[in-house]
Amino acid sequence: MRDQRVFEAYESERYSGGVHPRTAPGRVGAVAKLAGLAAAAPSGARVLELGCLRGDNLLAMAAGQAAAEFVGVDFLPAEIDRARASASAAGLANVGFVCADLLTFTPPAESFDYIICHGVFSWVGDDVKEAVLRICRQGLADRGVALVSYNTHPGWLHRQGLRQLLLAASARRGGGTRTERAATVLEVLRGALASRSDAASGFLRQEVEGMLGKVGGIFGHDELGPVNDPCYFLQFIDWATEYELAYVGESPWIGLTPSTLSQDAWQSLEAAGLGRLEREQLLDFLINRLFRASVLCRAADLPPPGPLRLDDLSLETVLRPDGDQARLVPDVELQFRDPGLPAAPVVLATRDAPTKAVLWLLGRASQPVAVADLSSQVRQLIPAESIARLEGVLTELVGRGIVGAIWQA
């Protein structure tokens, strides 16, 4: 039986939905390929999305992959009607939508190459969490992969106290909607924190600004929804293991840039001798992670550990070079900035010729660059004695999340 509180929350206040690039088969498939799992090519894949709402995310995928097949499931009849109307208006014959409760939905056995469940797992009860993992186990085809996103501790341990304050404020009678009342509290906190310079106030100010950035969009559900149930990474892995599912990686692959973890810290972590899953949990503490989008496969399909496989992938980066091609010569430092962060700070500075050339080329590219093409271009820019290190440099940059991977097949 569905959770009536969750149903009524989404019925009374529509969720904005949207397109989520990290869930696209080309991104999720790249994670699988990096790990050595021979997943289905995105161009002809069969894709299931759980909790699709009005279909924004799935419709964007269907429009870009005409030979693939897409199915979306949601328990809100009005949203499914909107999704079907949008598909019809766009002339998309390769996508369908099913109105069903995840508690009772059963997919055809081993029928999907990709299963996506984004923005659902932490906002539903344990029975629905179990249903999500059951559906993944039942529905995944041979070498299929699933993406499940969820809120994580320790990041949400700090945010939960603020959430409780907002829930109490929004429940009080007064003018405006519950979202507006909660936003008013956040504005009061912002003003009170403006003149404070201690570390605790700085941390709280960051949390307040992050929540205010969601007002008018997903704030009412993400922060004020009837269920918000974060977990530790290893808890999630234990649940997945109960359903014979194994951890493949994150989409994007790691998502750690030099601005969140220094190269020295990364190397210390690598040298600690931890198992992969324990290392991932430790990383969450080091960066106070709030959210994960974990990629799973059937346990029997998990390949043995090995080096990242870059074959057939294309690469990209958000970093931009702070200098021209003249700085690619050996022993000259080149800095790279992240324009997506406030004030576009320098997040990496290096004198290493292959690293500079890779990031310089990707930072100037207008679209992802195939690994083979990138390698060819880099070889023209670096000294001959550095070419032998190029493969290792590419693997390190992808492994650390400085460079992202996509499967454009």
How would the blueprint of this fold be written?
Blueprint: H1 4-12, H2 25-34, E1 46-50, H3 56-64, E2 69-74, H4 77-90, E3 95-99, E4 112-117, H5 126-139, E5 140-151, H6 155-171, H7 178-193, H8 199-212, H9 219-222, H10 233-242, E6 245-250, H11 263-271, H12 276-287, E7 291-298, E8 314-316, E9 320-321, E10 334-337, E11 346-350, H13 353-364, E12 369-370, H14 371-379, H15 390-399, E13 404-406
Parallel strand pairs: 1-2, 1-4, 2-3, 4-5
Antiparallel strand pairs: 5-7, 6-7, 8-12, 8-13, 9-10, 10-11
Q: What's the gist of this structure?
A:
The chain is an alpha/beta fold. It contains 15 helices and 13 strands. A 7-stranded mixed β-sheet has the order 3-2-1-4-5-7-6, with helices on both faces. Strands 12-8-13 form a 3-stranded antiparallel β-sheet. A 3-stranded antiparallel β-sheet has the order 9-10-11, with helices on one face.
